[in-house]
């Protein structure tokens, strides 16, 4: 599988990094996008054949250019994972309405741009996989999520439309709902510093499920995949 390419947005010190490592271990050349270069530049040195690209996916013109460059230099990715996310977690009157559009651009519009960039060659090839990572906000609105939940819900419905369009053409599209707090430095330290380890979903185990979903046999493709810690109430 040394010629396989996996394209991942939103590489941070949690799900994104763990997923990059899992696909690299599986023999993929991994293209890693992040708004800042610190982590991805270090990973590029560590993961053989990987490529680090600083890109804010909210800049749709730059994202389009990046997709073209990757295609020209590495070929059309076999797996595309949209993990980048933007959120605003405040009551209605404590944030500005434009936050909704900004969140929508990262969470939903960027996914459409990725599909638009890569799907034609995937269709011609007859294979490919597009996965978006979501969370509980994709399935219900909660207090303080008024600027975030609509964008994740739209992301899931967009992915569903893509799945129904592209699936019969050989492209597997899936949506993974992570119904949990993820064990990343910014979540643990900021929100739950005293929580036990099993309170969190572990990035390595999330990455394993993403890997599994990306490699399902064609007779058993999933679309909705929900994962949560064993004790999570739902």
Commentary on this structure:
This protein has helices spanning 15-25, 38-46, 60-74, 98-125, 149-166, 185-190, 203-214; strands at 5-9, 29-34, 51-54, 79-82, 128-135, 171-178, 224-227. A 7-stranded parallel sheet has the order 3-2-1-4-5-6-7, sandwiched between helices. Helix 1 (15-25) crosses helix 7, helix 3 packs parallel to helix 4 (98-125) and helix 4 runs parallel beside helix 5 (149-166). The chain has a single domain (5-227), classed as NAD(P)-binding Rossmann-like Domain (Rossmann fold, 3-Layer(aba) Sandwich). The protein contains 7 helices and 7 strands.
- Biggest beta-sheet profile: 7 strands, parallel
CATH architecture: 3-Layer(aba) Sandwich
Number of strands: 7
Shape: globular
CATH homologous superfamily designation: NAD(P)-binding Rossmann-like Domain
CATH topology group: Rossmann fold
Elements, N to C (H/E): EHEHEHEHEHEHHE
């Amino acid at each position: 599988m040394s010629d396989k390419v996996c394209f991942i947005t939103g590489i941070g010190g949690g799900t994104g990094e763990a997923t990059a490592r899992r696909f690299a271990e599986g023999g993929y050349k991994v293209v890693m996008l992040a708004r800042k270069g610190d982590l991805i530049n270090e990973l590029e040195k560590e993961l053989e054949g990987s490529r680090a690209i600083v890109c804010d996916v909210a800049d749709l013109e730059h994202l389009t250019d990046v997709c073209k460059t990757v295609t020209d230099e590495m070929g059309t990715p076999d797996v595309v994972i949209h993990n980048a996310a933007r959120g605003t977690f405040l009551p209605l009157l404590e944030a500005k309405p434009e936050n909704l559009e900004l969140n929508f651009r990262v969470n939903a519009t960027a996914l459409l741009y990725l599909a638009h960039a890569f799907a034609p060659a995937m269709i011609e090839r007859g294979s490919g996989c597009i996965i978006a990572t979501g969370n509980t906000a994709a399935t219900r609105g909660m207090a303080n999520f008024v600027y975030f939940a609509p964008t994740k819900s739209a992301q899931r419905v967009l992915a569903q439309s893509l799945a129904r369009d592209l699936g019969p053409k050989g492209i597997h599209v899936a949506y993974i709902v992570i119904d949990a707090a993820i064990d990343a430095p910014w979540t643990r330290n900021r929100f739950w510093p005293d929580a036990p380890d099993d309170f969190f979903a572990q990035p390595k185990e999330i990455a394993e499920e993403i890997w599994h979903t990306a490699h399902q046999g064609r007779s058993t493709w999933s679309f909705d995949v929900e994962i949560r810690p064993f004790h999570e109430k739902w």
